[in-house]
Amino acid sequence: MTQNPGKPASPADLRALDIFEFAQSGRQAAGGVRVSQLPRMLNEVPSDAPDRDTVFTWQAEGSTQPELQDNGIEAPQPYLRLAVHGSVWIECQRCLSPYSQHLDVDATYRIVATEEEADEYPLDDDEVEVIVGSRQFDLVDLIEEELLLSLPLVPKHDVCPEVHESLVSGVEGAEGEPDEGLQNGGEGASAGDEPARPNPFAALEKLKQGGPGDKKH
Ligand SMILES: [Zn+2]
């Protein structure tokens, strides 16, 4: 094998990219990635979506910026800029039908060599994230991670399509409560449910009072 590890850009290399070389040489790469290549993203796509395998376009650009090191000497440090654009079908939390959500990612990363270095890196800049680089860096995984992070917290249509009359009353009656229960998780949900549920002992009490019969009347 005489493959030059310093030459990335074929699709296979995107899962094993020499990210340090990519940055130091100021390389650029671009392409498309399908949702079917992103298993965690695909999980978010409802089975009744019109298209479960949409395509995201991405661009990556390596660069270096001079930084003062611990020894007081300035040295070029590796950076990566990543942009991803596209749409994915996800489920609207309001009407529960699938809709197409546009996602934009534009992130800049300072590439460090180790987890320790990442932990120590001063996060004085909101614009720059820190990632641990590798000579076999999985760029597709980074793209997927960023797309997942860019999903709306509560995905929903700007304006939901008209719901059939027969469904409206049901939707209205249930609105809010089930969602809140889900979001609160275990403890919150059970505590919140308590007051709404008829108290069986109160009911029993009523029976006892009513049962022996109308003494007070
Ligand atoms: Zn909707």
TrEMBL record:
Instruction: Respond yes or no to whether keyword Disulfide bond is given for this record.
Output: no
Top-rank lineage group of the source organism: Bacteria
Against InterPro entries, the record matches this protein to:
YceD, YceD_bac
Q: What does this protein do?
A: Plays a role in synthesis, processing and/or stability of 23S rRNA.
The cellular component terms of Gene Ontology attached to this UniProt record, alphabetical and capped at eight, are: cytosol
The record's region (Disordered) falls at: 171-217
The protein's name is: Large ribosomal RNA subunit accumulation protein YceD
Biological process (GO) annotations held by this record are: ribosome biogenesis
Family membership: Belongs to the DUF177 domain family.
* Organism encoding this protein: Caballeronia glathei
Alphabetized, the UniProt keywords read:
Ribosome biogenesis
